[in-house]
Design a protein that fits this description.
By secondary structure, this protein is α/β, with parallel strands linked by helices. It folds into 5 domains: about 5-170, P-loop containing nucleotide triphosphate hydrolases (Rossmann fold), CATH 3.40.50.300; about 175-300, P-loop containing nucleotide triphosphate hydrolases (Rossmann fold), CATH 3.40.50.300; about 310-385 and about 465-495, Arc Repressor Mutant, subunit A; about 390-460, Arc Repressor Mutant, subunit A; about 545-610, Arc Repressor Mutant, subunit A. It has 23 helices and 21 strands. The strands form 5 sheets. It has a 7-stranded parallel beta sheet with strand order 3-4-2-5-6-1-7, sandwiched between helices. Helix 10 (about 305-315) runs antiparallel to helix 18. About 35% of the residues are buried.
């Protein structure tokens, strides 16, 4: 608010969006929000519009006309928030319009992506600083949930902070119990965990196939479950997600495609069946539990095979140069993009069909695409549902003439105008099936009528899509001129190896509190043991403290059943009755009883049994 560039580190659920939304609303002008996640952009725009706040997003899959219209509205139409991917910042069309906008703040989500030391480096983030030459006096807010000390320094340097300003909330989650278990039979352990811990859960796995298999096993054991991955159709994913959010499904078994931007505070348990590729990713995914600050659990299951699998995934992540060349050439041929052409062009992309056409392995191809993205040749986006969009491009008078002259089109035009407001001024999301129901005709008839009106330049009609996409960020080059930055390649390899080593160390270290291990990884060294992770519980049992705490807890409950007491009164009574009960131990037992909701505080801060 005082105009300083700021880096804000807040854990998952820590309120990152509020940090830029409130200052932007309190200040005249528009806030530019840079984010790499289409699903997150769509979700935030939807939620802002629900509150009558004008917001828009530009992402792959949109036409040039749609983008033009949105940018014009940002200059002349009182739009408060424009969400945009970092790749779009570099386009001439955006930079020309940006100079005309009254920008009050630049917010950068997932800011760790700018650092080559980060676990999810994206070279397009390095171009963000360039837009500061166009709007030099606008403060910048960088936001992330995970950053090591090295990454924090890198973010500020790469974004050209005028002065170092970091706001950091502790990485420690006091309500979250982390546990790691070595298990040969992971499914039996998973069933045990889900039967012991009540409430909503997420189970993360690495493969799409496993999501369905494990969900079926859970259902057979009378646990309400469903599965989710990026390969599902957009509407199916949305339906599954909604059922889980509204507690019609208890457990979602999923890949890491699930969870980003989902605001569900009452998740009680997150279980990882497979090892994550970094502690940053694990911290974010595990952190989706307990956002309501109530007692929750994050459990990681592993065995020796997982360590070997992690090392294999590492070697597969850095394919040979010849395979990178072959895949790049195949992409150009597959999309019929000529050498020297294709810059800015986007295409729907079916990975499986592409691999079958050119006899390529899907996992190797996926890793090649990441390397091509890191070297600024293309941009990949996971499947995201984009509804059909429509805008009438003739004026009211012309539209009326068309209605009168073409009786077959008249009912379609009238129904569309009645159903969708603002369609004469801007692109509006439509549902062909809804129009068909209102007209009592088949959906194909509606699509045919809209296509006819599109060809005759009456409307601009964009059919829905929910496929993954690939965008060529630079013109296609001849295969022998494909340049892969070897220094960056080797550096990223080194970073990935360190990430994997940190995950293996976390699972193998059984003498240091899990919470302490995680926060130390992020540079926080003044943390104390959590007392509730698998390491702390095992240590407590080993030194007989567990039995003592059980006795104290029982004594506390007995006293509170007799009468409601203030904490200090209770401690005094217990220490007088049992001189071996120490004040610190009583406080520890009180904390545990409150977390487990066996006792509670009254309005006047006294304690009573639940």
């Amino acid at each position: 608010m005082t105009g300083h560039d700021t880096l804000a580190l807040l854990p998952t659920g820590g309120g990152k969006s509020i940090c830029f939304q409130v200052p932007a609303l309190a200040t005249e002008g528009i806030c530019i929000v840079i984010s790499p996640l289409i699903a997150l952009m769509k979700d935030q725009v939807y939620n802002l519009k629900k509150r009558n706040i004008k917001a828009a997003a530009i992402f792959s899959g949109m036409t040039k006309k749609e983008i033009d219209r949105i940018l014009d509205n940002c200059i002349y139409g009182n739009v408060k928030f424009l969400y945009i991917s970092p790749e779009r910042l570099q386009t001439e069309i955006f930079q020309l319009r940006l100079a005309k906008m009254k920008v009050n703040l630049i917010a950068i989500d997932e800011a760790h992506c700018i650092s080559q030391w980060g676990y999810d480096f994206r070279p397009s983030y390095l171009k963000i600083e360039e837009i500061r030459n166009i709007i030099s006096d606008v403060p910048l807010l960088a936001l992330t949930a995970t950053a090591t000390d090295r990454v924090k320094i890198d973010i500020q340097d790469k974004l050209g902070f005028k002065a170092k300003t970091v706001f950091q909330k502790s990485f420690k989650r006091n309500n979250l119990s982390y546990s790691v278990f070595y298990e040969d039979n992971k499914l039996a352990k998973l069933l045990q965990i889900l039967k012991n811990v009540k409430g909503t859960g997420i189970v993360y796995v690495r493969s799409r196939k496993k999501t369905k298999q494990i969900a079926e096993i859970l259902r057979k054991n009378r646990i309400s479950a469903d599965y989710y991955h990026a390969g599902l159709e957009g509407k199916t994913r949305a339906k599954k997600q909604e059922a889980w959010i509204n507690n019609r499904i208890r457990v979602m078994v999923c890949t890491n495609a699930f969870g980003m931007g989902i605001d569900k505070p009452d998740v009680r348990i997150v279980v990882h069946i497979d090892l994550p590729e970094s502690l940053e990713a694990y911290y974010q995914e595990a952190g989706r539990a307990g956002r309501d600050l109530k007692k929750s659990y994050a459990v990681l299951l592993y065995n020796k095979a997982d360590h070997l699998d992690l090392e294999k995934r590492f070697s597969d992540s850095f394919p040979a140069y010849e395979l990178i060349q072959k895949t790049y050439q195949s992409l150009g041929n597959y999309f019929k993009v000529a050498i020297g052409a294709g810059e800015g062009q986007g295409f729907c992309f079916d990975l499986r069909a592409f691999c079958q056409t050119y006899q390529l392995k899907p996992i190797a191809t996926f890793n090649v695409l990441k390397i091509l993205q890191e070297n600024n040749y293309l941009l990949t986006n996971d499947a995201v549902h984009l509804p059909a969009r429509l805008m009438v491009i003739v004026d009211k008078t012309e539209l009326y003439k068309i209605e009168v002259a073409n009786r077959r089109l008249e009912p379609y035009i009238k129904t569309i105008l009645r159903t969708y407001g603002g369609i004469l001024d801007d692109y509006v999301a439509i549902d062909e099936r809804e129009i068909a129901r209102n007209l009592k005709v088949k959906s194909e008839y509606v699509k045919n009528a809209l296509t006819f009106m599109q060809k005759n330049k009456i409307v601009d009609y964009i059919p829905q899509t929910d496929q993954p996409s690939i965008t060529f960020t630079s013109a296609r080059v001849a295969t022998d001129r494909l340049h892969i930055n070897k220094q960056l390649f080797n550096f990223r390899k080194e970073v990935r190896q360190k990430n994997i080593d940190a995950v293996i160390q976390y699972t193998s270290e059984n003498n240091v509190c899990r919470s302490e291990q995680l926060v130390r990884y992020f540079g926080e060294f003044n943390s104390t043991s959590c007392g509730v992770c698998d390491v702390c519980i095992r240590k407590r049992k080993a030194n007989g403290k567990e039995q003592l705490l059980d006795k104290i807890s029982h004594a506390i409950q007995q006293e509170l059943q007799k009468q409601v007491l203030e904490p200090e009164q209770l401690i005094t009574q217990l220490t007088q009755q049992q001189q071996r009960f120490k004040k610190q131990e009583i406080l520890e037992a009180l904390r545990w009883l409150l977390e487990e909701e066996k006792i509670k505080r009254t309005a006047d801060n006294k304690l009573e049994v639940v």
